[in-house]
Give the backbone structure.
Amino acid sequence: MKDIFSSSCPTIISRSEWDARSPKSVKNLAQNLPPFVVVHHTDGQPCSSLSSCKSLVKSIQNYHMDIKGWHDIAYNFLIGGDGNVYEGRGWGIKGSHITRYNSKSIGICVIGSFQNEKPPRKQLETLKNLISCAKDNGYVQSNYHLIGHRQGSQTTCPGKKLFDELKTWPNFDSNVRP
């Protein structure tokens, strides 16, 4: 069976490239290398161009910091409909995306709402490549557990269709429950 993950890293748009604000504070992961990769969706509008995705990521950071009162954007990375990865908190930094797993996971958010439809192929391929990149470059454990947000808290995130897709991927852990 052919490995569905490639070993090349996708393009990562840095925080400075999308004009991120400085975080209020930064904490390293308690467990490095983290054993979990947690997938989310924004449950909102998609973006399809570099400029629209940069703007949307910036607005997500503003919402998380100004309305939610968090120290930074919640996720370690976000994936736009343009096929790019947007650096959130980045590698090795504790996120604010799922309480029980923040200190021992990489949180990846796929931009869009995926309750009724799967993400476009471009986003799914980028997600696969980012996870492969993390594994191949020692940013997560080689035997990492892939989970959806709903497995760690009471939510429908990352949407039914994206969650159904994740269940078919290597390292998906169906034993994790909220």
In short: Helices lie at 50-67, 121-136, 160-166. Strands lie at 12-13, 36-41, 77-79, 85-87, 105-110, 145-148. The CA atoms of residues 41 and 110 lie 5 Å apart. The two ends are 32 Å apart (CA to CA).
